[in-house]
Amino acid sequence: MRRFNLKVNGREIQVQAPPGITLLELLREYLSLTGTKEGCGKGECGACTVLVDGMAVNACLFPAAKAEGREVTTIEGLARGEELHPLQEAFISEGAVQCGFCTPGMIMSAKALLDREPHPSREQIKEALSGNLCRCTGYVKIVQAVEKAAEALAQEKC
Question: Residue 5 forms beta bridges with which residues?
Fold first, then answer.
């Protein structure tokens, strides 16, 4: 076993886990943060997307050891207490949540985009979400939700 020291959703964490595990395994199995999903396990579907130091990564491919001393944000870390993040609100209000399996990864990819580009074009949104697969939708409502969240976040800053 190895001790991992990292910051997860704003909290300093120390956890004992096997040395060769992925960040996805660490989050789900050792920290009980099950919002991050395992879809393909090969970095193809984006269901496991989390932020590491603000960058979207596939947690299924990301070695937990590489997260040592870094800041990890999962879908559970977006809400402010009982108040959902504007991305979460927009996904609900725009009907961008179908079965919900891909939603956490979609939202985390969108968050990474909006953090670096507060006013993205539709093409930038599509590009940012290109690593996330959804089997339920045609992506129209998902793109609309990201656009709506960008507007809401811009209003918050005013």
Answer: 14
